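FORM 12-B: Structure-to-Sequence Request
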């Protein structure tokens, strides 16, 4: 990984999976020039769901959130690139999709805060923590992305 690059954690949530938006969401990340490092199709376990949203444990919506995220298939990913964490947060848009700008994933595909299609880590610490919930070390690929010479100066 180039020195200025960072890894982030992204997940297509069960609502977007059921709506057939996996390709659209992954495609936007690829089109932007981000590098896919790891990806799975799985239904998050109760333990994974609770750990994923541990920071919201004391919120009124926590139980519903964990129930939703464990309700069916989701696509967790590790994505790499320059400033990938903030770049992807900007690409997904505001938490409440009604406030998300058109052109963002949530702004284009969602209307309800509890069904906002996609998750992305909000800091380097969250990214590392969330990646570890869903991926073992040997599940992260190590390869040269030849396109990067055309994406970065
Ligand atoms: P984020 O997904 O944009 O990082 P967070 O504040 O970390 O937003 O919240 C995690 C998830 O919890 C959100 O994506 C959303 O689905 C859900 N959520 C956040 N706030 C509320 C709320 O007030 N009511 C219901 N669900 C919420
Ligand atoms: Mg969050």
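FORM 12-B RESPONSE
SEQUENCE OUT:
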């Amino acid at each position: 990984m180039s020195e200025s690059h960072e890894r982030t954690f992204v997940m297509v949530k069960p609502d977007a999976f059921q709506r057939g938006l996996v390709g659209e969401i992954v495609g936007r990340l690829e089109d932007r020039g981000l590098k896919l490092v790891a990806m799975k199709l799985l239904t998050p376990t109760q333990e994974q769901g609770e750990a994923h949203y541990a920071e919201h444990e004391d919120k009124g919506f926590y139980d519903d959130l964990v129930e939703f995220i464990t309700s069916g298939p989701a696509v967790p990913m590790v994505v790499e690139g320059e400033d990938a964490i903030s770049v992807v947060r900007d690409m997904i848009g505001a938490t409440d999709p009604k406030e998300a700008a058109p052109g963002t994933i949530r702004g284009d595909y969602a209307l309800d805060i509890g069904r906002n299609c996609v998750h992305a880590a909000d800091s380097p610490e969250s990214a590392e923590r969330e990646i570890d919930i869903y991926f073992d070390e040997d599940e992260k690929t190590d390869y040269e992305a030849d396109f990067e010479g055309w994406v970065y100066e």
